[in-house]
Design goal:
Helix content: 55-70%
Radius of gyration: 16 Å
Length: 149
């Protein structure tokens, strides 16, 4: 399996990560009304695991390049990446409108994970699937336990 990969740099993975981080950078600088996301987390250990997996996910998406991948093109997976990304941005827009219901929280937690997962599948980057999967579970539990239940 590892023979299919080379160490390189996938600019699309880096651009995707930084694009998804834009709303987070805005949130760090400009608090939203009814900003429940700034509350202390009750899942601190899980949050640490999520942070480590997030770093591993980004490294995997950007550094490990499958030799068998095709150029980024309009495929079902890339269209799904774009739609998931737009829904994620819409979730942030609703959050900044003061809407903090379960659907918005799930949008903020699950959609970025789906963006990375579908991108990894399009890029044939199976190495990234494990940290993405663990990050998704941790991020989802964080959102549900801290803000939905």
């Amino acid at each position: 399996m590892l023979k299919k990969y080379k160490i390189g740099f996938d600019i699309w993975g880096a651009l995707l990560f930084f694009t998804l981080m834009i709303p987070n950078f805005i949130w760090f600088a400009v608090p939203a009304p009814n900003d429940i996301l700034r509350a202390d987390s009750v899942t601190a250990t899980l949050d640490t695991v999520a942070s480590v997996c997030q770093v591993l996910m980004v490294i995997s998406l950007c550094i490990f390049v499958n030799r068998e991948r095709k150029k980024v093109r309009h495929s079902r997976l890339i269209i799904t990446v774009i739609i998931s990304c737009l829904l994620y941005f819409a979730s942030w827009a609703f959050y900044y409108m003061g809407i903090t219901n379960g659907i918005v929280i799930l949008g903020l937690t699950l959609l970025p994970c789906l963006v990375f997962f579908f991108f990894a599948m399009d890029r044939k980057n199976e190495i990234a699937v494990l940290p993405i999967s663990i990050f998704t579970i941790c991020h989802l539990v964080y959102g549900i336990v801290n803000f939905i239940i």
